[in-house]
Amino acid sequence: MSNTKSENLKIEALQAKHLPMLASSEQTRRIGWMQIMLIKTWLSEAEGKLKGLIPKRQPKCLVALEGGDLIAIVVLQPNNRRGSCWSLSFPEFIKDPKQSTKLEASKSLLQAAIQTQKNVTQNWLIRLPSSETDQLSLSREIGFQPLKIMKSWECGEHPDPDCLESNKLPLNVSCQPLSRSNGQVLWRLKNRAESPQYRDIVDNQWMDLIDRNEPENLILLTKNQDEYIALLGLITPICSEELLSLEIIRDIAWDSRLIKSIPYLLNKLIVSWPKISIETLASDIHTNNILEELNWKEKGESVILGRTLWKRKANKNLVLKGNTLEAIFGGLKPNQPPLPSPFLFSKIK
After folding, report:
1. Which residue has the higher pLDDT, 30 or 187?
2. Distance between first and last Cα of the chain
3. What pTM was computed for the model?
4. Which residues contact 101 (CB under 8 A, 6 or more apart)?
5. Residues 94 and 199 in one domain
6. 119 with 209, same domain?
7. Residue 33 · residue 26 · CB < 8 Å
8. Same domain, 89 and 144
9. Structure confidence by residue, pLDDT tens digits, 44-88
10. What distance in Å separates the CA atoms of residue 142 and residue 113, rounded to the nearest whole number?
11. Calpha distance 217→145 (Å, rounded)
């Protein structure tokens, strides 16, 4: 990979020579993680050279150097086998930059990451806390558009074992683990649950769900004549840094059978994974109310943003006038194609 330089930064793929730089910093606890990422970066580059002969599964890591010091890292993760959509982590700083601000360095690192994949990857995702308005504004500046807002939950009070025994699914509803035999049923539910814009950017096929089946994904099924229909799914979230997390997806129309089914599923999960986190759409009032009634506690809220090069249609009515969350989302039209960049922003301080 050729080096990408900004005015003060040198940005390149993670290499063995960078590990001693980390050892000399205050982030020595990350050396083990960096060693693993170095191997994964090598494997990712090998996957890229094979040009679609094998699925894209390995992440890669880029680093930003300033004056010979390693100051920041960013991780790129493929979201499907074809490598048509990747996720970006927001840059993590090992040291404070001396010749630029963190936001300036972050912008250079994110742009370099996108540039490295320009020949094979048209679609990108990034997830940011909804409270980080500067990061959200910067992401919008380089072409990302908000796609959905997610809530993250943790179990605040574990259910009584006697309650678990008495908890039953409604009639004609069954719970199955994700497998090759039911993967397409879950995939169809996922497509119905998502906006066309998000679906086009992520560009998933049903085998991509199988690849991400950890922790074990679950499906609530009902049978209509000879056909199985998915009512709800618990799937591994895309673009999440939490290793033990599942996202609830359901059809747009609310099904009253979920009032009993969701508690059954969550209680089943807690038995196997006491520390698991659950993600829901912030706009899914029905599901969020059920979690609150079950004493699940909200951990935080995040925004998933997407960027695509396939469609770029101007929306002249959308002009951001500030860097508050309301200003960032005020002109959002979810059914519109992705918006171009740059937008008009207030100066980021």
Report:
1. 187
2. 32
3. 0.81
4. none
5. no
6. no
7. no
8. yes
9. 777 776 666 667 778 888 999 988 888 999 999 999 988 889 999
10. 12
11. 28
